[in-house]
Amino acid sequence: MVEISASVLDVKEEEATKILYNLEVAKIDYFHIDVMDGKFVEKNTVEKMNEYGNLLKQITTLPLDVHLMVEDVETYVKLYSTIEPNIITFQLEAIQEKEKVYKIIELIKSNNCKVGIAIKPGTDVKELYEFLPYINMALIMTVEPGKGGQTLIPETLRKIKILKEYIKQKNLDTFIEADGGINENTIEEVANAGIDIAVVGNGILKTENYKETVRRLKSLT
In which band, very low, low, confident or very high, does the pLDDT at 115 lie, cut at 50, 70 and 90? Predict the structure, then answer.
């Protein structure tokens, strides 16, 4: 069964405590925190996600799944390590030098966090291969990063299948997470492609009964 990481990107601030509580009651597996700096992607969510991250640290024991869509990865790793997330994922495209990728991997590990690397829809999945033995999770973006509510790009399913096959061949323990456009209509496809964790935002938030939605999402995998 695929685990559900609920994105808090589109949670309204005036209802945040109530919605976050309702998501936990709905039996999600992770809270997904989308950190955007207004540079790597157009949107800037730093202040909002910092607020939600600190709130979640106080009110939940569920693991926090932090996704950094930022240019200055090192600074944000240090900033978000303070909320003690389970995993910090950064975008491979934000770092040009391989040596720096390894440096960031070690920095995240030194803060007692698991490590994830994400790639955009246009990035070849083979770019991840070298780093897979050193990380815990590979995140395949199934939409262009930066906005909620987008439609899943079908071509990304093939990337997931290729990555899953490679992980099996190499006998690695790396999880695969998919993020973007996942809802009751698409989760079966991404699950069949080989993911372990699905990031779901509006696919839960725009439904009336979170608990029933999460139950249905899991049942489809």
Answer: very high
Which whole-number Å values give the CA distances from 196 to 52, 72, 193, 202, in the listed order? Answer: 25, 28, 10, 19
Name every residue whose Cβ is closer than 8 Å to that of residue 18 and which is 6 or more positions away in sequence: none
Q: What percentage of residues in the chain have a pLDDT greater than 70?
A: 99
Q: Which CATH number fits domain 3-219: 2.60.40.1180, 3.20.20.80, 3.40.225.10, 3.20.20.70?
A: 3.20.20.70
CB distance 132 to 170 below 8 Å: yes
pLDDT at residue 147 in the model: 67
pLDDT, tens digit (0-9, with 9 covering 90-100), for 124-176: 999 999 999 999 999 999 999 876 668 999 999 999 999 999 999 999 999 99
Cα distances (angstroms) measured from residue 220 to each of 64, 70, 210: 24, 33, 15
Q: Which helix (H) or strand (E) holds 4?
A: strand 3-7
150-153-157 Cα angle (round to 5): 135
Which residue from 192, 121, 110 is spatially nearest to 150, judged by alpha carbons?
Answer: 121
Give the active site residues. Answer: 34, 179
